[in-house]
Amino acid sequence: MLKSYFDYFLKKIIAGNNYKDWYDTHYSLKTVSLKNRRLAKELEAACKRSNGVLTYAEYLQVDQFGRNGYHATHKEHGFQHIHTSTIKEIVELCIQNKLEHIVDIGCGNGSLGIEILKEARQRGYTLSWTGIEINEQLHGEIKKRFKTAKLEKSLIEISSSIQHKAKSHGKTLAIFSFSLDSMPPEIFMSSAASVPDTMIGLQIKDNLLTEIALTKEQLQQKGLIMENGIGTDIYKNKFDLRSWNLAKGQRAYIPIASFSLLKECINTYAVAQLLIIDEFRLPSNEKYREHVLVPRILQRFVRDTVDFKNLYENSGKILYYYPLPWNTIVSVLKSLGFQKIQSGKDAYSLKILLGEVQNPVGKIMLCRDIIASQRIKQSPFATITVDKPGSIH
Q1: What beta strand segments (E) does the chain contain?
Q2: Residues 334, 199 within the same domain
């Protein structure tokens, strides 16, 4: 934090800004007027239904998928950019491990599933497919695409969630293809220099958005608990966040919903193997001195990575993606019982991701895949360990 302040000091010295200015800019809770008035009214209505306050994830649900949110007003979504070689590798993985069913979480317009099934058909191998896509506007398009490809018989179902008891369709491969990094996180904070003990909440009224630190009572009203670095979500999943030592006011965007989804998917579909394809954040050579796992759109800037006000002002206009630290995902998968976790790419890249080899100069992200297998069934009440980026346990 001290280094960050001196960077700011040198940049602003002529303007006469002091430590208080810097601290308020970087670490204070924000109050912002929203430009999209229709979305502001929608958010205010959501607030009223939720005892007057939203968590950050609840805000993003409206911001991204509301009637006046991003997906309702933009067409640039639903695509899965997967290389042909990856399709072949996925089918080969299914054949070698006698996998019969694919659950595609965040399946977009279904293009990945269609290409996998086409490749399997060409190789004389039978697979069935289930798609999970929160954006219900895409469900009709998925069905049309499958019909055009003459793959309707391979389509088990399309759903917006996995909160139901699914029928068994044989050994299942769960695929998360560029989907975990778009799931809404919660913003965790510490009231002192310690482990996270609260979350940021948002109140919207008369076009004005105000951040607040949620009290224990407000968290409990939402079915959330934070105690001594252990968090509990509305599904009674417990998360060990004790490695996340934060400075006072420092924010950590932790995607606990993603980890709950992983657990729910594994238990619902009796997943034998799990494949995550995404861009993973490498371990940093320098201790991160600002907020942790902020939206990727803010990480373009070297010095000033905290323009949260601008993001709020432009609610409904931004498609959000968040960093996925490799070691954080690995710690979660181990907690969920997977004994074997590997990268589908070369061994050198895996060593970089695990922090065993120094980062290449200028490299921040690596597009890689995680293959998790050999799962030992865990107690449904087992705590999920969520390692802070850069901490290898």
Answers
A1: 31-33, 54-55, 101-105, 128-132, 155-159, 172-177, 186-189, 198-205, 208-213, 225-227, 230-232, 238-240, 252-254, 271-281, 324-325, 338-343, 365-375, 384-385
A2: yes
- Lowest mean per-residue pLDDT among 150-154, 226-230, 376-380: 376-380
Q: What is the pLDDT of residues 338-355, one digit of tens each?
A: 999 887 654 445 554 455
- Asked whether the beta carbons of 147 and 141 are under 8 A apart, the reply is no
Estimate the crossing angle of helix 84-96 against helix 111-122, to 10 degrees.
Answer: 60
For the residues 302-311, what does the mean pLDDT come to?
66
Last residue of a domain, one of 156, 177, 198: 177
Domain containing residue 136: CATH number: 3.40.50.150
Contact 116, 87 (CB under 8 A): yes
For 294, the token pair is 């902020």
The pTM (predicted TM-score) of the whole model is: 0.83
Mean pLDDT rounded to a whole number for the chain: 83
Q: Report residue 110 as tokens.
A: 């279904």
Hey, what's the torsion of the CAs at 4, 7, 9, 11, to 10 degrees? -140
Domain shared by 252 and 310, yes or no: yes
The closest of 84, 82, 83, 62 to 73, measured between CA atoms, is 62
Give me the phi and psi of 299, to 5 degrees please: -85, 5
229 and 281 belong to one structural domain: yes
Q: Do 201 and 70 reside in the same domain of the chain?
A: yes
What residues contact 120, with CB distance under 8 A and at least 6 apart? Answer: 91, 94, 126, 127
List Cα–Cα distances, 117 to 147, 174, 331, in angstroms: 13, 14, 31
What does the pLDDT read at residue 304? 45
Which one of 160, 177, 194 terminates a domain? Answer: 177
Q: Flag whether 391 is in a domain.
A: no
Can you give the length of the chain in residues? Answer: 393
Give the SS3 label for residue 357: coil
Confidence class for position 305, pLDDT limits 50, 70, 90: very low
Q: Residue 384 in 3-state DSSP?
A: strand
